[in-house]
Amino acid sequence: MRFYKIKALFKLGLEDLLKNMNVFIYIILPLGFALLYSRMDAMPKGYIFSLCILLNLSMVPVALMGTIIAEEKEKNTLRTLILNDVKATEILLSKALICMLFVLINNILIYFITSLPINTFVLYQLVAFFVSCAVIFLGAVVGLFSKNQMSAGLLSMPFMLLLMAPLFVLMVENKVIENIVSVLPTDAMMEIFSHISDSSMNFSNVGIPFLIITIWFVGSIVLFNIAYKKVGVDN
Fold first, then answer.
1. Which residue, 233, 190, 223, 216, is CA-closest to 135?
2. 63/153 Cα distance (integer angstroms)
3. 150-191 confidence digits (pLDDT tens)
4. Pick from 45, 46, 7, 71: which is nearest to 196 by CA?
5. Ramachandran category for residue 201: left, alpha or beta (phi over 0 → left; psi -120 to 50 → alpha)
6. How many folded domains does the chain comprise?
7. DSSP assignment of 131-164
8. Domain extent for 173
9. What is each CA distance from 209 to 90, 195, 216, in whole angstroms?
10. Among 1, 23, 78, 134, whose CB has the most other CB atoms within 10 angstroms?
11. Is the pLDDT confidence value at 81 over 70?
């Protein structure tokens, strides 16, 4: 893997992304919700942060990653790059780094918008980063199976809704649904966030949530590898 090519692809992809408002909307929405909810004094700051990070990690890694890969397919850019001695793994890694950059920027901005104490900053960010690593491979799978941006939007929707499920579980009093949601990485993240907010974080109450996130991380990598071997990057 040649890092100078990844760097060049990263810069080129970043420039293209900043010109595409259709894709950029996924990045702006979580920040917009953070600005809106932060003005509501009745809502605890920790809950607002958790809610907006949940939206950020449900949307940006999945929809953005899938869409930018599909956009390159639509323009036949991927085929041109591969014919010019650029490896598919280098292309995918550069796209993943772009997505991760915006995920991290959003996470940081949301933290300061919600005015949480600085002493918990690193802990919150590390947990969110770990979850985003697990989720971003799902976005790559969406991109691999998408022919164009429209199909990427449709394919990413089920993943986004699934990851956002912790938002809706309180509205549905169903034990089966609650059990399903409890094994999602985003629900595990919300549980860890609640312990950080309450200063009650210890191994006994966050061990299982961290295990769930780790399983999703490994599982998403396996799923990505299967998808990559099946369809490749330029199907």
1. 216
2. 7
3. 888 888 888 888 898 888 876 677 777 788 888 999 999 999
4. 46
5. beta
6. 1
7. HHHHHHHHHHHHHHH-SSHHHHHHHHHHHHHHHT
8. 3-231
9. 32, 11, 11
10. 134
11. no
Closest CA to 106 of 191, 161, 26, 21: 26
Q: Which residue has the tokens 């299982």?
A: 208
- Picking from 58, 74, 96, 226, the residue whose alpha carbon sits closest to that of residue 146 is 74
Distance CA 34, CA 53 (A): 9
DSSP state of 171: G
| Residue 190 DSSP SS3 | helix
* C-beta of residue 139 within 8 angstroms of C-beta of residue 62: yes
Q: For residues 61 and 156, what is the distance between their CA atoms, to the nearest angstrom?
A: 10
Q: How many whole angstroms separate alpha carbon 52 and alpha carbon 35? A: 10
Structure tokens at 28: 């702006």
* Encoded amino acid at 111, one letter: Y
How would DSSP label each residue in 100-136?
A: HHHHHHHHHHHHHHTT--GGGHHHHHHHHHHHHHHHH
Q: What is the DSSP string of 6-56?
A: HHHHHHHHHHHHHH-HHHHHHHHHHHHHHHHHTT-TTS-HHHHHHHHHHHH
Residue found by looking up tokens 């590898």 in the block: 225
